[in-house]
TrEMBL record:
Residues 65-319 form the AB hydrolase-1 domain. The lineage of its organism: Eukaryota, Viridiplantae, Streptophyta, Embryophyta, Tracheophyta. This is AB hydrolase-1 domain-containing protein. Residues 1-17 form the signal peptide. It comes from Oryza glaberrima. It holds the Pfam family Abhydrolase_6. The gene is LOC127766393.
Length: 336
């Protein structure tokens, strides 16, 4: 990995560490499915069994927020601006999706539903993988961006169907620039916009030209100049690695033909956040997703941002997110 990318990665990892998160990994099934993740240190230690200490720990337990990243660099790059503000009020779990970074599996499925099943196994292991989740039930909110939003939909459903057996209960769901209603015609339109034959050539770029096309579509105001050495380093580290697997992830996204309940409303309260000038999933898709998810869904549009709204205007994004997840008095007393 080039020096510049290493330096930026170290900066984001430091932001995670400063927010109280620590790296971990867990094998979550018999097929060697291994998830690497970051989690608050309180979730990585066994709860105290001492009476007074256990009572104090239980009283101090906070709701959990799971942040699910999309395609692109390491999740520390994608959620670096969120972990600090969120960590003041929640215990965080930030998984690295399969075939991104070191997370991998020997299992055959490559769908977004399988990604969600792996995360669900991490969260509902009776404390085997996250000891701090053992014991009393915890409220858990799910936030997913782009492809991670598709995974978040499946995760919310998976955890809801096992609510009586696990340690977590899904509270709220946040979907950021995630087109749950995406179809083949949308992929074709995006490919045409990016000047490629298939959408996989854009979302899993193989060379600098394709990477620059992707950046131009993802960001409302893309940088005027990205040095060639930085593009090469980013491609080598985050896009060339397991590229064929990433292409399969795109091709095996679950469709309504495969799952008749896919587009049915979720039982949770849902916030849909979208960038006003998203060129990957146009902003009108936000309202289609709301129609699909029903009365419990609301839409917030972030002005002057594109597909990476949470990175382009993190202050507004974090304000919207916290106002949705926190009770109003907590926001008024310094949630920003």
């Amino acid at each position: 990995m080039g020096f510049a990318v290493s330096l930026i990665s170290a900066m984001f990892r430091r932001m995670f560490a400063s927010a109280g998160l620590r790296p971990g990994s867990a094998v979550v099934d018999d097929d060697g499915t291994t998830l690497h993740f970051w989690a608050h240190s309180s979730l990585l230690i066994l709860p105290s069994k001492n009476g007074a200490a256990a009572a104090a720990a239980a009283a101090g337990r906070r709701p959990v927020v799971v942040l699910v990243h999309g395609f692109g660099p390491d999740p520390t790059w994608q959620w670096g601006a969120q972990v600090g503000p969120l960590s003041r009020h929640f215990d965080l779990v930030v998984p690295t999706l399969l075939f991104f970074g070191a997370s991998t599996t020997r299992a055959a499925p490559r769908s977004d539903a399988f990604q969600a099943a792996a995360i669900a196994a991490l969260l509902t292991s009776g404390g085997a993988h996250l000891p701090g989740l053992g014991g009393e039930r915890r409220e858990l909110h799910i936030v997913g961006t782009s492809y991670g939003g598709l995974v978040a939909r499946h995760l919310a459903r998976a955890l809801s169907t096992t609510a009586g057996d696990g340690q977590v209960e899904v509270g709220k769901v946040v979907l950021c620039d995630a087109d749950l209603a995406k179809g083949a015609e949308d992929d074709a339109a995006l490919a045409a916009k990016g000047g490629v034959a298939e959408v996989t050539e854009l979302m899993a770029p193989a060379d600098g030209k394709a990477f620059r096309r992707l950046m131009a579509l993802c960001v409302h105001r893309p940088p005027k100049y990205i040095p060639d050495f930085l593009v090469r380093d980013l491609l080598r580290k985050y896009f060339a690695d397991k590229r064929e697997e990433k292409i399969r992830l795109i091709k095996e996204i679950v469709t309504e033909e495969q799952d008749s309940q896919l587009n049915s409303p979720l039982p949770q309260e849902i916030l849909i956040i979208w960038g006003e000038f998203d060129q990957i999933f146009p902003v009108e898709k936000a309202h289609k997703v709301k129609e699909m998810l029903g009365e419990k869904a609301t839409v917030k549009i972030i002005p002057n941002t594109g597909h990476l709204a949470h990175q382009e205007d993190p202050k507004m994004f974090n304000d919207i997110l916290l106002k949705f997840l926190l009770p109003s008095p907590a926001v008024a007393n310094g949630a920003k």
